[in-house]
Amino acid sequence: MKYLRFTIVLIAALFLTASCLEDEGDQDKIEEIILNVSAETSFYYDLFDAKRENPIEGILIQERGSNHWECVHFQEIDGFTYEKGYDYELLVEKTTLANPPQDGSNVRYSLIKIIEKRMRYID
After folding, report:
1. 3-state SS of 18-80?
2. 61: closest CA among 3, 15, 111?
3. CA-CA distance, 19 to 11, in Å (whole number)?
4. Cβ atoms of 107 and 95 closer than 8 Å
5. How many other C-beta atoms lie within 10 A of the C-beta of residue 39?
6. What distance in Å separates the CA atoms of residue 11 and residue 33, rounded to the nearest whole number?
7. How far, in Å, CA of 73 to CA of 30, rounded?
8. In 4, 51, 75, 90, which residue has its Cα 20 to 30 A from 60's Cα atom?
9. DSSP-assigned letters across all residues of 79-111
């Protein structure tokens, strides 16, 4: 009986200890990436605009190696000031948040440097 009680207490202690350890999945993922910013702007809708009645103008961004362009707020890239009519190639720090806010993005961008800025004429 003593052996069984000791085993149960030991197992319970192991579970409690394991649950208190920091899970690696709960840490933000930080990486440096190349981000393209288009000379053209587009529109997106706020998360709470279910009827899609109020379009918001934003910049088009694309991670190097991706075919997908995403429209985001003009101030989405911390430290970057967008000028319409210019294509940009940026080196940014991309932080993927382990615990993002419920009403926001799970990704944050911070400008490291502008690699290239090219004027493009838009019709």
Report:
1. HHHCCCHHHCCEEEEEEEEEEEEEEEEECCCCCCCCCEEEEEEEEECCCCCCEEECCCCEECC
2. 111
3. 12
4. yes
5. 19
6. 44
7. 21
8. 51
9. T----TTEEEEEEEEEEE-SS--TTS-SEEEEE
Residue written as token pair 């985001």 = 72
Backbone CA torsion sign across 85, 89, 91, 93: positive
The rounded distance, in Å, linking the Cα atoms of 92 and 70 is 16
Record the tokens describing residue 68, joined without a space: 């997908």
Per the listing, tokens 């088009």 go with: 60
Copy the structure tokens of residue 88.
């940009």
Report the amino acid identity of residue 93: E
What's the pLDDT at 49? 83
User: How does pLDDT run along the chain (123 residues), one tens digit per residue?
Assistant: 666 565 665 566 656 555 555 555 689 999 999 999 999 999 999 878 889 899 999 999 999 999 999 999 999 999 999 999 999 999 999 999 998 888 778 999 999 999 999 999 866
CA distance 97 to 110: 13
